[in-house]
Amino acid sequence: MSNDLFRVAVIGAGETGTPLLRKLLAAPFVELLGVADLDPEAPGMRLASDRGVKTTTSFRDLADLGERLDVLIDVTGVPAVRDSLRKAMQDTGNHHTVIVHETIVQLMLSLLDGQLVRLKHDTQEY
What SUPFAM superfamilies does the record point to (predicted)? Predict the structure, then answer.
């Protein structure tokens, strides 16, 4: 990571990911490299696409960015995604990218909002 720019990607572009994406897109110190969601019409996917950000229906495409990516944020709430991301980082020897899961996102959004923010997840499986 350069000292003044975080290179970030987000997995999950629905009710939880979209507000997060708005904050990331508004931050001049963030370069959003990609957004993944199973639903190409999810609100965050449309938002990202409208802003010229790469979108994909496969979260593995984002994991494949390798060490070009500083932070990979997973707000799916799906344990299989979490496990697959860990395995992808191990298999590729990527010790650079930090994986941030929904609990940390919930904490950060709650701190920004000044109150506990509840995350919403559907039951869609990956």
Answer: NAD(P)-binding Rossmann-fold domains (SSF51735)
Cβ atoms of 37 and 13 closer than 8 Å: yes
Fold of 6-113: Rossmann fold (3.40.50)
- Global confidence as pTM: 0.89
CA–CA dist 88, 82 (Å, integer) = 10
Q: What is the pLDDT along the chain (126 residues), one digit of tens a residue?
A: 457 899 999 999 998 899 999 999 999 999 999 999 999 999 999 999 999 999 999 999 999 999 999 999 999 989 999 999 999 999 999 999 999 998 898 898 889 889 998 876 544 443
Domain ranges of the chain: 6-113
Please state, in angstroms and rounded to a whole number, the distance separating the CA atoms of residues 11 and 81: 9
Tokens 């799906």: give the residue: 78
